[in-house]
Each structure stands twice: as structure tokens, then as C-alpha cells.
Design brief:
The chain has about 700 residues and is an alpha/beta fold. The chain folds into 3 domains: about 10-365, Aldolase class I (TIM Barrel), CATH 3.20.20.70; about 395-490 and about 660-700, 3-Layer(aba) Sandwich (Rossmann fold); about 505-655, 3-Layer(bba) Sandwich (FAD/NAD(P)-binding domain). About 35% of the residues lie in helices and about 20% in strands. Strands 3-6-7-11-12-15-16-17 form an 8-stranded parallel β-barrel, surrounded by 5 helices. The protein has a 5-stranded parallel β-sheet with strand order 20-19-18-21-32, with helices on one face. The longest helix has 21 residues, at about 150-170. The two termini are about 40 Å apart. In the N-terminal section; belongs to the NADH:flavin oxidoreductase/NADH oxidase family. This is NADH:flavin oxidoreductase.
Length: about 700
């Protein structure tokens, strides 16, 4: 039994089934490649088996209760493929590719029967959004069709049949999807239900469809079989029809659902249409536990809470405080499918924690893409088709140059596969750009710590710090394969004054962390950069640098202009905003945060708009930097231009990186097997570098 996580790692009984711990994965359709023609693929089987082997208490996975006759919905929208559960012919595939891989490891799997927005009434129609009425919260999610009584009856019949199929296939539980703005949750909310029949009006009537579904499923599965309900007690939705669910009304719903047959509350927060930030790193771990605590105050059945649960220490504390009975989430499992096992074995240092980069959500939910990328876990998509580290046919001498996410994942993959690995880093410490991004994005510090732990736990990897590499070093080392992961080249700004005393480059911080004093104008600046570099050579943590950056007025004054409104500029701008600096963010393109996570962009820009100390300047081209600020030409949406001046004592250039192919090009003829990965190849997000390094390490 775990000593650090005694409650999180302990069993939980849900009706007739006992879960081995309190960690539940919520469901998300992984997308293409995980199902084909209504059947789960080996890729999905491998995905599920990883999590079962990792001792997940309950794995919830979505299945589709109707036969798909087209993967194209109305308007040509591509729909995520899902395994089907519409009839007996589906049972063999469900058993073999979903239930079997989980039961192989004594795990428990729950079938979430799909009921989010889309449905099809006629066998030959394409899927489309249905609900109690045609009310759409967002225009781009329009096209809702009000369900007739006949359609409601067919919906229920289909649902009950799917429950029967899933139970016969061997699933351990059924989840009724009545949240996140799906069909049943739209019936429950006054914001989208203004019906005047028995399915509208009073709370009892609005809950009627969910109650009838629960009662019908209970008749099908029997008294001892667990029924989980995914629902949203607070939906943060308002329309002309009315306000959505709030916590007081939700507390009245609890006994209604429990009397109808619910065995476990699986609480989601908000709907897909909600504008309130729900899952981004701006929301602290455990923030939404207040909702679970309120539901638990009136619930007789166990309560699980989902969203913003990524740290087992926080999970344990919330369980200890009695705010919930189980932790529901998905990103912690995407980041590390072995996390529950590590919880039960007290292996805290080995935990690969989610960094809340939202890449999985951005791709699958917002982008309509399959689950291929995670910021910290490369084993998704095509990589799931083989084991994590397939053994190499022949041992090779491998040289990895650069120690960011790409370099470290390449080194570890190559080492795990049996190669002899030497890892070279020009600076005094490992981590690449994550050393710097951890200052501005504290969740990245989790990955920085984990990468260092990975290297420490692979002593066979020979680490060479403070060792710059060029072609001559490679030639002398005589490797069989080289992975070039040296990061991108910094993008500079070519305007008068760009090298002025008051100008700093984002790259200056990385240079300083790598033990090199940045070039600077003026005796004072040179002295200060020398002093800061000397200090950081001896002592560095992201928290130390964060506090120093926040409290000192050098190198960032109290009045800052940031040139570059992409991710680096926005993260730096957010730090300046939080530390009370008067901040201007200047971007030549149309959008501030154009390359920021889709999940975070709205909330981040909203923060900037509300902050009294931040002004944003999109469509603004810098023409000159002076000692007192920035001269620029600003355009409006119609193309009209005007000259402006933005006062600033400090001007920060944060234009990001460009490809850096020089070292790889110089190795032609020196080594036959060269892999160019990460930002050195093409600057992208952390997940791309993590994946690229791993793929290279597995290709050698």
C-alpha cells in the first residue's frame, strides 16, 4: 500500500465492482487510426493495454451506438471514428480489441455510450447535432435539430441496445454521457431547453430523458452492474432561453440521478461551448474540486471529479479533505499511462506529469486530428503500433548533440534499445529551451525535472556537459549515428536601434542559463550580465530565476515593449503583467498569440484585455527602436496605416526561432546516419520535439 498516497492508491467499490485505486480515466475519442469502419484497431488495443498495465482503476472509453454510413457529416465536417456497439456483430471486436487487452492485466473498462451532440435518426442520414431544441450556444456549432417524441424513443431504444451489447462484450461498467453539452445535458439545462412538453419546463421534466435512459440501462444490465454518469453540475452557459445549470440546481439533480440508477458521479465542468477557461494551465490543479465538494455534500454514491487533475499530491490532498471519492481525468494518463502504478508504489520521482500544454485537446477536440502528440509522452499514433522501445538489431555507437526534449528523448530511446549513447550539451546543465520556458511557464518545470531524472536513471548514457560540438568533434568520436538536436537559431530584428542598450533578446536568457554572458552595450549592462551569468553558473532553479525576474528592475524595467506576439512574447508578457510592469505587446501579424495553444489563446488574450497594465498592438510593424521606446507603423483591418510611438525603457525581442541546419549539413561525409530533430529541424511546440527525438532514437 502507498504511504505517500494512501487514499489515492486504495480500492474503491462501485456497486458490484471494486476498483484497485481511485484513479479513473475519462473518455476522449483518440480519432483516426484507433478505429476503422466501426471497429477498434490494434492501435486502440495497445493504447488501452498500456493504461491497464499501468494499474488504472477504471478506464472509460467511448463506443458508438449506431451504424455509421458515412464519416462525413453535414457541411463536410469530418467526424471522429469510434468503435461501434450497435449490434451483436460488434461484440467480437469489442471483446478482442477493448475488453481483452484491459482484462489481460486485471483492469476494469467502462463503455461510455456516445451521446455528445451528434446522432442520426434515420439509418441513411449523416450524423448531425440534436437536442431538445434548435438553440445553438455558438454559431459555428449551430445546426441543432429539436428531437421529436418519436426520435427520443428511438434514441432510448438504441441506447438500451448498446448497453446490452457492451455488457455481453465483457465491459465492467456503462457510462451514461449526460454532460459537456451533449444531448442529455442540453435537455437538463434551461439555456438550451425551452420545450413545453414533458421534457421541458420543470427540473424534473428537464431531467426526464436522463432518468429514463438510466432506468432503461439498469433494466438491461441488472442490479449489481455499475452505471457511471458523466454530467456537468455547472455548465457556464447562458442564452436568450435562460441560464444554464448552477450548483444549487445541480444539488437538486443528485438524488434524481441516484434514484434512477446512478452508481458513480463522474463530474465534468462546463460544456464544449463554455467560454470560461476550464482546463488550461491558468487554472490551478484541483481548482474545480469545489464543485465535487458541493455535490458530495448531498450525494449518497461516490463522486469523481474531472478537469485539472495532474498532480498526485494535490489529488491525495483533495481525497483526504473529503472533497471527492475518486479522481477522474485523462491528461495525467495521456502523459503517463503508468502513473497509477507509480502512485501505488510511491515512485514519485518516476512520474511523468502532464505539463498542461493542451496539445492533446487542441488536436483531438479543437482540431479534429487523431491523438498523436503529447508534450511529454511520444508513444501515440503510429508509435503505438510497436512497443515503446523495440530492441535494436545491431548495437551502434550513437552521438546525441543537444539536451532539450528532442535530444533527451532520442538519447533515452537509443539507450533503451541497446545502443551505446553519448549525450553532448554545450552548456553547464541539461534541458535545452525548457530551462528557459520553465521560468515563464512553471508547469514546464515538471518536464525539466523529469528529463534530468531520466538521464540520472540511465547511467549508461555518457553525458558531456560544457562540450560544444562541431564536425571535428564528431569526426574524432567516430559514431555510427548522430542525432542533431541543438535547437533553432534565434530570429533577430533588423531595424535601427535593435542593438541598443535598452534592447534584450529572449535568447539572452538562454545564453545566460547556458553559462555564456550575452553580448551587450554599455558598461553597466555588461557588468550585470556577467554577474547574473556567474550566479546562474553556480545556482539555478526556474523558481529562483522567476522570483529574480519578478522582483528586480534589471534587465527588465517596469516599462516594457515586447516585439513578437507569438508564444514566447505572450509568455513573457504574462510574466510582466503579473509582476506589475507596464507592458506593450507588438505583433506584425493579425493575431496576438497566433501560435499559442487554441485552448489557451482566448483566455490569455482576455487576460491581456482586462489587465490595466497591458496594451496589445496587432498589425504593427516596428521601424525603429530608440532609448525611450519603439517607433512603428500600425495598420487597421482595412489596411489604413499610421505612425505610432510606444514608450518603453526596456524593449524585448521575442520573435522565436528559425531552423538551424548548419551542423547537420557539416556532417555530410563525416557520418552516414544523421538525424536532424526538434527546433533545429523546424521550430514547433514541445510535443513535436519530444516525438521527433523519440522517433529518431527508435529509427537508429
Amino acid at each position: 500500500m502507498s504511504t505517500q498516497y494512501p487514499i489515492l492508491g486504495s480500492p474503491l467499490k462501485v456497486n458490484g465492482v471494486t476498483l484497485q485505486n481511485r484513479m479513473i480515466t475519462t473518455s476522449m475519442s483518440p480519432g483516426e487510426g484507433y478505429a476503422e469502419n466501426g471497429k477498434a484497431t490494434q492501435r486502440l488495443a495497445n493504447y488501452l493495454e498500456e493504461r491497464a498495465a499501468g494499474k488504472t482503476g477504471l478506464i472509460i472509453q467511448t463506443v458508438c451506438p449506431w451504424k455509421r454510413n458515412s464519416d462525413i457529416g453535414e457541411g463536410g465536417i469530418h467526424l471522429h471514428p469510434l468503435p461501434s456497439c450497435y449490434g451483436d456483430e460488434c461484440i467480437p471486436n469489442l471483446k478482442e480489441m477493448m475488453v481483452g487487452p484491459v482484462h489481460k492485466h486485471d483492469g476494469k473498462i467502462c463503455a461510455q455510450i456516445y451521446a455528445v451532440h451528434d446522432w442520426k435518426f434515420e439509418s441513411d442520414e449523416c450524423e448531425g447535432p440534436y437536442g431538445p431544441t434548435d438553440i445553438a450556444v455558438l454559431k459555428f456549432m449551430g445546426g441543432f435539430r429539436a428531437m421529436t417524441i418519436e426520435q427520443i424513443e428511438e434514441f432510448k431504444r438504441e441506447y438500451f441496445n448498446a448497453a446490452r451489447v457492451c455488457k455481453e462484450a465483457g465491459f465492467d461498467a456503462i457510462e451514461v454521457m449526460a454532460g459537456v453539452g451533449g444531448i442529455m445535458s442540453r435537455f437538463m439545462s434551461k439555456a438550451t431547453n425551452n420545450r413545453t412538453d414533458q421534457y421541458g419546463g420543470s427540473l424534473e421534466n428537464r431531467c426526464r430523458l436522463t432518468v429514463e435512459v438510466l432506468q432503461g440501462v439498469r433494466e438491461v444490465v441488472g442490479p449489481d452492474y455499475p452505471i457511471v454518469v458523466r454530467w456537468s453540475p455547472v455548465d457556464f452557459i447562458k442564452t436568450d432561453a435562460g441560464e444554464g445549470l448552477d450548483i444549487e440546481e445541480a444539488k437538486q439533480i443528485v438524488p434524481i440521478l441516484e434514484e434512477a440508477g446512478l452508481d458513480l458521479h463522474d463530474l465534468a465542468v462546463g460544456w464544449h461551448e463554455t467560454s470560461v477557461p476550464l482546463t488550461t494551465k491558468r487554472i490551478e490543479d484541483g481548482h474545480w474540486m469545489w464543485i465535487a465538494e458541493q455535490i458530495k455534500s448531498v450525494a449518497k454514491k461516490p463522486v469523481a471529479q474531472g478537469y485539472r487533475n495532474t498532480d498526485p499530491t494535490v489529488m491525495e490532498q483533495n481525497l483526504k479533505d473529503g472533497k471527492c471519492d475518486a479522481i477522474a481525468g485523462l491528461r495525467y494518463s495521456i502523459a503517463d499511462p503508468d502513473l497509477p502504478r507509480k502512485v501505488m508504489e510511491d515512485r514519485t520521482a518516476d512520474m511523468r506529469k502532464c505539463i498542461v500544454c493542451c496539445r492533446c485537446i487542441d488536436d483531438v477536440v479543437s482540431g479534429g486530428k487523431p491523438l498523436v502528440y503529447c508534450g511529454v509522452n511520444p508513444h501515440f499514433g503510429p508509435e503505438l503500433d510497436h512497443e515503446m522501445y523495440p530492441k535494436a538489431a545491431k548495437k551502434k555507437k550513437v552521438m546525441v548533440i543537444g539536451s532539450g526534449p528532442a535530444g533527451i528523448n532520442a538519447a533515452v530511446a537509443a539507450c533503451e534499445r541497446g545502443h551505446q549513447v553519448d549525450l553532448y550539451e554545450a552548456g553547464p546543465r541539461l534541458g535545452g529551451c525548457v530551462k528557459m520556458s520553465s521560468i515563464f511557464s512553471p508547469y514546464h518545470e515538471r518536464y525539466l525535472d523529469y528529463m534530468n531524472h531520466l538521464i540520472e536513471s540511465h547511467p549508461a548514457i555518457n553525458v558531456h556537459l560544457k562540450t560544444p560540438v562541431d564536425a571535428s568533434v564528431v569526426k574524432a568520436a567516430k559514431p555510427d549515428a548522430v542525432v542533431v538536436a541543438v535547437g533553432g537559431d534565434v530570429r533577430g530584428l533588423d531595424v535601427p536601434g535593435a542593438d541598443g542598450k535598452n534592447v534584450i533578446q529572449s535568447h539572452n536568457f538562454l545564453e545566460m542559463l547556458n553559462g555564456h554572458k550575452p553580448k551587450a552595450k554599455g558598461a553597466f549592462n555588461n557588468f550585470m550580465w556577467w554577474g547574473a551569468t556567474t550566479v546562474l553558473k553556480m545556482h539555478y532553479t526556474p523558481e529562483f530565476a522567476r522570483k529574480a525576474t519578478g522582483s528586480l528592475s534589471w534587465p527588465i524595467s517596469k516599462n516594457v515593449a515586447i516585439i513578437g506576439g507569438g508564444l514566447p512574447g505572450c509568455e513573457f508578457g504574462h510574466l510582466c503583467m503579473e509582476t506589475g510592469r507596464t507592458t506593450a505587446i507588438i505583433e506584425e501579424g493579425k493575431k496576438i498569440g497566433y501560435d499559442v495553444s487554441a485552448s489557451e489563446r482566448f483566455g490569455m488574450n482576455n487576460d491581456f484585455k482586462k489587465a490595466p497594465n497591458v496594451t496589445t498592438y496587432p498589425l504593427t510593424k516596428v521601424t525603429e527602436i530608440t532609448e525611450s521606446g519603439v517607433k512603428a507603423i500600425q495598420s487597421d483591418r482595412e489596411g489604413n496605416k499610421k505612425e505610432i510611438f510606444i514608450p518603453a525603457k526596456t524593449v524585448a525581442v521575442t520573435l522565436g526561432f528559425k531552423p538551424n541546419h548548419a551542423l547537420a549539413e557539416s556532417l555530410k561525409g563525416v557520418c552516414d546516419e544523421v538525424y536532424l530533430v526538434g527546433d533545429a529541424d523546424e521550430p514547433h511546440r514541445i510535443a513535436d520535439a519530444t516525438k521527433a527525438g523519440y522517433v529518431a532514437g527508435c529509427a537508429i
